[in-house]
Amino acid sequence: MILYEVFVRDFSDQGTFKAVENRLDELVDLGVNALWLMPIHPNGEVNALGTYGSPYAVKDYTDIHPDFGSMDDFRDLVGACHIRGMRILIDWVPNHTAWDHPWISAHPDWYTQDAQGNIVHPPGTNWMDVADLNYGQGGMRQAMLDAMRFWIADVGIDGFRCDYAEGVPQDFWEQAIAEMQTINPDVIMLAEGAAPWLHDAGMNMTYSWDGYGAIWQVFANGSAAHSIQTSFESEATSLGPLDRRLRFSTNHDETSWDAPPPTLFGGQDGARSAQAIVTFLPGTPLVYNGQEVGSTQVLNLFERIPIDWSTNPEMRPWMTTLLTARRDHPALVHGDISFSVQTNVFRAERNYTDADGHTHRALLVAHVRDGNRTTDLSAWQGMDYADAWTGEAPPVSLSLGPFEVRLYLTP
Question: What span, in angstroms and rounded, lies between the C-alpha atoms of 276 and 293?
Fold first, then answer.
């Protein structure tokens, strides 16, 4: 799965579902086969942040934000995705609601309260624009399940990206996932969190926060490329054979609160190198809208900043080659990984032997520094490798420019 995250408000000048639908073919051509839409629900006005409020302050779990279109518009988008063989997930925010959610007045006991009986924001956070839900209340749990069931059974989405999943009890996720699977056995559940118990609860995917941290340390802080290998191997010890990590060089949080990859990672070349690494690693690669044009815009969650799609036209074909290889090449879909990382050059190979006994190979060489460097590729001679972008075979000694990336594939 190649997952593409959409901030509907900023994805187009119109900021609507129809505008997303109109560009689905373009996303398919890019190599994308699954969409994750950031929250599509009405968001709260009480204690709202910024001009538009946070999309993660949900006011109604079963309605559509009127700025984005109608429920029929959203159903059309779901159908258009399915016609193209794409899956569609929506962001689900189960830990808290907006302060003007109807449950606040109708069921105050469904929320966490202090000693004086006041509803509180999520403890340990500064999220003052949302009210913390109390999962000790059976009525609230059932209402949450009913709302989730509506989107799977009645609207036909394929799953949820679950915000702050670690803030919700494991037994709720076990119940919710089991119920969703009775409607759609192939439902996709992506947890924003990295705790192993999320997989025990039935989540298909969890966040590779450590992997992102390693990328940040290497590209933004000068750490050795070995940090990426160390992070991957450490994560693998807690994962089962079917568990997947979501791998990313940015997402809505990192772009909004830190900076976009070109700003963080040494320019457009550094952004490409970082994205190539997270795409190559086993797991599910993520692309945040705007990455395919090397956007340097800070897409603040509380404002409206339409993406400028005219920038860096050379980035889109580069990204297309990377993502389609990741989606289609057997070694990148199924292959085991082995590392031969150097301090300043990330090198790794993935191999897969199919049922006919044919071994498919993929070799990534990604320079993680500015400047020029040479790396020895003598170990990969005579394997019928060709670079995905240029078609060239790997030389014995490869001269790399600043943040240069080579992806070698065998037939």
Answer: 15
pLDDT cut 90: percent of the chain above it: 99
Question: Residue ranges of the domains in the chain?
Answer: 3-333, 345-409
* DSSP H helical ranges for 50-95: 71-83
Cα separation, 138 vs 172, whole angstroms: 10
Q: Which long-range contacts (CB under 8 A, 24 or more apart) does 304-309 make?
A: 304/9, 304/10, 304/15, 304/51, 304/52, 305/10, 306/10, 306/11, 306/12, 306/13, 306/15, 307/10, 307/11, 307/12
What confidence score (pLDDT) does residue 250 get? 98
Q: Look-up: residue for tokens 């060089």?
A: 249
- For strand 3-6 and strand 284-288, is the pairing parallel, antiparallel, or unpaired? parallel
* Tens digits of residue pLDDT in 240-284: 988 999 999 999 999 999 999 999 999 999 999 999 999 999 999
User: Contact at 8 Å (CB) between 138 and 107?
Assistant: no
pLDDT at 352: 98
Same fold, 3-333 and 345-409: no
CA separation for the pair 178, 384 (Å, rounded): 46
Please report, to the nearest 10 degrees, the dihedral formed by the alpha carbons of residues 226, 227, 230, 234 taken in order.
-170
CATH class for the domain made up of 3-333 = alpha beta
Each residue's pLDDT tens digit, 318-330? 999 999 999 999 9
Distance (Å, rounded) from C-alpha 358 to C-alpha 408? Answer: 17
Can you count the helices (H) and strands (E) in the chain? Answer: 15, 17
- Annotate 126-143 with DSSP letters as a single string: --TTEEEB-TT-HHHHHH
Q: Cα torsion for 26, 284, 167, 143, to the nearest 10°?
A: 50
- Please tell me whether the overall predicted TM-score, pTM, comes out greater than 0.70 for this model: yes
Q: Topology of domain 345-409, per CATH? A: Immunoglobulin-like (2.60.40)
pLDDT in tens, 95-117: 999 999 999 999 999 999 999 99
